[in-house]
Amino acid sequence: MFYHDKYTDKGMIPPYALENWEKMYKAYRDLGGNGMIVGMDSEVRRLPLEH
């Protein structure tokens, strides 16, 4: 997913992007998305916030 690749490459994530990620993750899981997104989610959530 774009957000995962962009911000894990960058090594940090701005707060607004993390909020958007969380909304997209929830929607994807609610639609029955596969387990791959779970690993991506944990990687994104470990990123430090960009200030």
Task: Offer a quick outline of the entry.
69% of the residues lie in helices and 0% in strands. With 51 residues, it is mostly helical.
Oligomer: single chain
Name the helix and strand elements from N-terminus to C-terminus, one letter apiece. Answer: HHH
| Poorly predicted regions | none
Shape: globular
Number of helices: 3
Q: Main beta sheet, described?
A: none
Mean pLDDT: 93
What would the keywords be for this entry?
single chain, 51 residues, mainly alpha, 3 helices, 0% strand, globular
Q: How would you describe this structure to a colleague?
A:
By secondary structure, this protein is mainly alpha-helical. The chain contains 3 helices and no strands. Helix 2 packs antiparallel against helix 3 (36-45).
SSE blueprint:
Layout: H1 2-10, H2 15-30, H3 36-45
